Structure formats: C-alpha cells, structure tokens
Amino acid sequence: MLVSLLMGVFSSAGDWYWWLLLPVCLGSATCVFLFSGLSSLLDRWDLPVAVFPFNTVIVLYLLCTGPENPYFPHHPATPPGALETNGTELIAVEVMRGILLGVGQIFACGALGPSLLILGAVLLYSPLLAVHALLGSAVGTLAGLSMAVRHDSLYSGLSGFNGALGCMAIGGLFFTFSWRTHLLAIASAFLSAYADMALSNLLGTVGLPACSWAATLTATLMLLLTGSLAAYRIPIRQVRAPEHNLRSRSQWEAGNTEERESTDV
Hints:
265 residues, 11 helices, 64% helix, transmembrane, Ammonium/urea_transptr, transmembrane helix
C-alpha cells in the first residue's frame, strides 16, 4: 500500500496515468518477497521487518526511473536544508497545523481533513498511540525549527512524520508503556527527526526522498537496547495495542507476585 501511495505521489506523469499500475503491481509484489527474506534474518534477533521492504523498493524504483524517464517520470525530492532565502518569521497557526499534518504524512496525506480522520482512527484503536503520534510530530517539528529547515517542510508536516513514527513505535507498541519508555519514546522522536533531516539532505542531492528510513532505523536500534529498559521490551510475536500490552504485563507481574508469595517458607 505504501509503495503504491508513494509512486503516485512522486509521479509527474499527470493524473489518471494508468501505466503506473505496472510498477505499482511489480513493486508491491517485490515487497512481499523482501518481507519474507528479511523475516528469516531479523527473527534471529526478535526484530520487526517493519517498513524496510517499502523503503527499499521505493528508493530503487525512483533510482531506476529518474525525473526525465519517458514512461515513469517523477518529481525530484528537495532537501529540507536546501540553501534558499528562509525568513525568520513563522506563522504559528501553520506550525500547529503542520503538527497535525505530520500524522497524515505517514500515509503521504498533506491535507488537514484526511489527516484528522487518520488521527481519529488511531485514537479509536489506541489513545496511547494517538498521544504519542501527536507528541512525536510536535518533537519532529521542534527539531526542524532548531535546524532552520525550509518553512514548507514545517507547514506540510514533513518535518514531523518520522518523529511521530519513532515515538509511536517505542511509546507502547514495542515496549510496555511506563514513564521510562515514555522518555525513551521522546528521545526516539528526536533521533528520528534529526536522522531524517540528515538522510533527506544526503539523498536529496540526487533527488531521492528519505521516506521513513530514519524512524525505521532508529526504532530498530532502540529495540537492540540492553539493560533495565530491555525488561520492558515486548516479543515481536506478542505485540498488540499498547493498552493490551499494558494489561498483559500487569497480569504477568501480578501472577509472578502471587507465585513468589505462595513459595515463601
């Protein structure tokens, strides 16, 4: 789904360009094979495949075609730190709107109405995920402000969506929610946002987008953490909604407490 969305977003061949269905079908099928291959590799470390296949396929597709391709042309990506006149005055309302759009940009949606619907759907599924999505998008926008990225990146939500993904992944999805993992989720949002700016500036030199590489790599590194935080890690095959994960951990801890009390002599 993400591959087809991004192919349509970056295509410069105009609306209703039916030939685009060919790379969409081939790219989507390739994702399945990549997912299967990466699963056998990453399962050894109990790591999720996440969106590694999507990020790989969309970058390869854009590299193979190019902006001037006669059949499948696409718009080149612009680095967020591109040198251009960047005014010092910000429109606060647009920045706040950009935080909401950061959630919608996870699905390549840059309109406020659909972004609110997406956020509402996440809220219905898990209030904790919705809170972390907004928090991560705000953190990503703050990181963009600190690096003086182009204003349209702030206003369109592109500065915030990787922060939202990084914050959601750690703040209750792959880790049981607690004040420790909440702080770790904020750190993950900052790291995802800064990594996204670095990768966007690097790949933007050849007209490629960074997609969600930053959040995917950051979340994977967070899952490899050891020490006290590793105790909050949820096995990949047991990952559910954050509220379900929290209840399961509470029941598990209660069961362990009762077991210890029953064996005391």
